Structure formats: structure tokens, C-alpha cells
Fold this sequence. Notes:
Layout: E1 3-5, E2 8-9, E3 13-16, H1 18-27, E4 35-39, E5 44-54, E6 57-62, E7 66-67, E8 75-81, H2 87-98, E9 102-107, H3 119-136, E10 144-145, E11 149-150, E12 161-165, H4 174-177, E13 185-190, H5 198-206, E14 210-212, H6 221-235
Parallel strand pairs: 1-4, 8-9, 8-13, 9-10, 9-11, 12-13, 12-14
Antiparallel strand pairs: 2-3, 3-6, 4-5, 5-6, 5-7
Residues 165-167, 190-191, 194-196, 213-215, 217-219, 221, 224 line the site of S-adenosyl-L-homocysteine.
Amino acid sequence: MNRFFVNDIGPDWAVIEGEDLKHLVSVLRLRKGDHVMLSDGRGSECEGEIEHLEPGKARVKTGPWRPCLSEPHHKLTLFQCLPKAGKMETIIQKGTELGMNALVPTLSARCVVQPGRDFDKKLQRYRKVAQEAAMQSHRGLVPEVLPLVELKKADLSIFDTVYVAYEGEKEQSLKRVMADRPGRRIALFVGPEGGFEADEVAALTEKGAKAVSLGPRILRTETAGMAMCAEILFELGE
Ligand code: SAH
């Protein structure tokens, strides 16, 4: 069944509007009486029936809301150092499919790409990518794409555990450090194409982060975060 995110929610109804409505009408060609799944974007979902279609909105009669079963209980936030052109969108799309909860574009010493003045526009585009991927992959929420941070200024205090994927770490594998239960709020740091500088990793580990190896092969920056999301949620049974 097709899934839509809704904000305007009443006791037994909800309204689909905007881009979602265009998709519903023009692409899926749904009609009055058709059934849809709705997500409130905060982890709950329900089934509904289109009861009224008019220009600009579709009103849906909703059944009981319940927790969305596809939503992981553990919340993964990916601090992704800025990759080269176009890759961030792939990372957001795939991360959303894999269960990532939020992405923070991060500036580190070896980022080839600098954010530039039009970064706000890029953020808008990234948020749209997250929304589309969340719909496609039946997520119960749209992962947040947060504003850019500088690596050394990142606030780690809100996380239970922080893992830094570090190609220079030869001892601690992700699997091994996960033997210490990571808690529910987990942050992941992935370096840019040029990797992390040793002092960047040291600054993070001083704040409590754990440097981890993702194995004997060097993954591209766009692969590393995805591998971490998949492995962590697998290890946690999600
Ligand atoms: N230029 C670096 C590789 C950078 S890979 C070199 O040649 O050594 C980009 C990022 O992906 C790294 O900064 C790291 O965060 C992550 N990464 C890739 N492979 C990894 C591995 N085997 N273990 C841990 N992190 C890895």
C-alpha cells in the first residue's frame, strides 16, 4: 500500500497535501475509496481510506494509529564529512533505507568540497531526498538533515555512544566495541575522501568517542556510513 506523510491530523481524519498529493493524484492515480498508509513523521502510522479529493488536498478517514513497526528503536545519527559532488544525496537516500535517524553534514580538515554560500539550498534538496526515501522505504519518520557543523565543534553530549570510523584503527572492530551495549542514541562519524587527520580522531576520542575499524578493506566515504548503519542495526537485531 502506498505511504504518505501527514501533518494535519484530526481524531479520525488526516489531510494529504503538497508534493505528496501531486504524487497521489498524477502518478498513482488514486481515487476516493482507495486505501493508503499514513505516517505522522514521528514514528506512528495508520491505515486510511481516501474520503474526499479536491484541488490542493485529499482528506483521508483514518483507522487507529499504532507505532510504526519499520522504525528502529535505536537512533543512529550519521556525522558525514562533506563528500564530493552528488554523493551526499546517495548517502541520505541509502541511509534512510537502512534506518538512519539523522544526518549531520560535517566539515573536517581534509574535505575537498567546501560548503559555499548556497549550502542552505543544498540542505533543502537533501531534506527532500530524505522525505522521498522515507516514503519509498516505508519509514515511520523522515530522517532529519541538520545544519552543517565543524567536526571539532560537534556536540556529543546528547549521545549514549559515539563511534568514529577510522581507517587508522587496526585493533578495535565495530563488532567488538559493540559488545559493550551502545545505548539507544548512537552517533557515527565518517571521514571525507581524504580520511581523518589523527588529531581529529584524538579530539573525538577525548570527548568519549570510540575509534573503530570497519575491516581490512578501505571503503569509500559513501560506503562507510552505510556499512556502519547496516552492521549496527543488524547487531542490535533491528
Ligand atoms: N584516504 C583514506 C581513506 C578514506 S575512506 C586512505 O586512503 O586511507 C573515507 C572514510 O571512510 C574514512 O575516513 C573512514 O571514516 C571510513 N572508512 C573507510 N574504510 C574504513 C575502514 N576499513 N575502517 C574504518 N573506517 C573506514
